[in-house]
Amino acid sequence: MVLSDLDACGGLLADGDARVLRPDGSAIEGLYAIGNSAANAFGDSYPGAGATIGQGLVFGVIAARR
Predict the structure, then answer these.
(1) pLDDT of residue 47
(2) How many CA atoms lie within 13 A of 19 on its CB side?
């Protein structure tokens, strides 16, 4: 976990479907991580205001549809 100026850049690693990944890279069915509970989609950088909100909304919709 790496501290940033607004929040933490860390969390559970998830795939493009928002499923939490095990250390071996396989997905844990039924377990999803979005927003600040998931690893930042932008890596260890913060592109600007609203980035975490956008990531939460996008992956929230993806997880809900699964």
Answers:
(1) 76
(2) 12
